[in-house]
């Protein structure tokens, strides 16, 4: 067994021999030469920390979607958001931050050109819902107290 303390890599060779095998050291060299480098950890700009509260699972009625942060499209641009059905499928849209408030769909299909507005309650910073055009996304299916557009009969979706 050989260990590289600098990288934390370990190689173990199991063999039946009466003398030590030098193969393990060679495997560490091979690993160092061919392993891709570990990417640098992404550091979110503190001015864009509000994005963290937006990311995660949101529901349009009973349908789960994920809202994920994407790297900025270029220097001096803001982080982007990607909204997609959980598990894949249609209705994927990438949103870019608007200068004053909210986001706008810039790529994709269903919500292209639509404005995404995070909704917060008085005195709270964490959004309880997302308003996209005439759609209301919530953190749980038909979450009570979020004012679902069009209303719905209680428990009709279960």
Determine the structural class based on helices, strands and strand pairing: mainly beta
Biggest sheet layout? 8 strands, antiparallel, barrel
Q: Give the helix tally.
A: 2
* Sheet with most strands: strand arrangement: 3-4-5-6-7-8-9-10
Percent strand equals 25-35%
Return the average pLDDT rounded to an integer. Answer: 81
Strand runs, count: 10
Helix content: 10-25%
Could you say which overall geometry the principal axes of the C-alpha atoms support?
elongated
Order of helices and strands: EEHHEEEEEEEE
Question: How far is it from the N-terminal to the C-terminal residue, by CA?
Answer: 56 Å
Radius of gyration: 24 Å
Low-confidence stretches: none
Q: How is this structure best described in words?
A:
It is built from two helices and ten strands; from the N terminus they run E-E-H-H-E-E-E-E-E-E-E-E. It is mainly beta and 158 residues long. The strands form two sheets. An eight-stranded antiparallel β-barrel has the order 3-4-5-6-7-8-9-10. It has a two-stranded antiparallel sheet with strand order 1-2. A hairpin with a 6-residue loop joins strand 7 and strand 8. It is elongated and about 75 Å long. The protein starts with a strand and ends in a 20-residue tail after the last strand. The mean pLDDT is 81.
């Amino acid at each position: 067994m050989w260990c590289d303390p600098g990288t934390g890599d370990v190689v173990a060779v199991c063999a039946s021999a009466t003398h030590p095998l030098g193969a393990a050291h060679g495997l560490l060299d091979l690993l160092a030469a061919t392993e891709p480098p570990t990417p640098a950890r992404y550091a979110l700009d503190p001015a864009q920390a509000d994005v963290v509260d937006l990311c995660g699972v949101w529901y349009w009625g009973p349908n789960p979607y994920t809202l994920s942060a994407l790297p900025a499209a270029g220097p001096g641009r803001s982080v982007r958001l990607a909204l997609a059905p959980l598990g894949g499928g249609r209705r994927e849209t990438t949103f870019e931050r608007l200068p004053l408030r909210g986001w706008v769909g810039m790529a994709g299909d269903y919500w292209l050109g639509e404005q995404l507005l995070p909704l917060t309650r008085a005195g709270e910073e964490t959004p309880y819902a997302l308003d996209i055009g005439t759609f209301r996304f919530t953190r749980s299916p038909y979450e009570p107290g979020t004012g679902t557009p069009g209303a719905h009969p209680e428990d009709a979706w279960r």
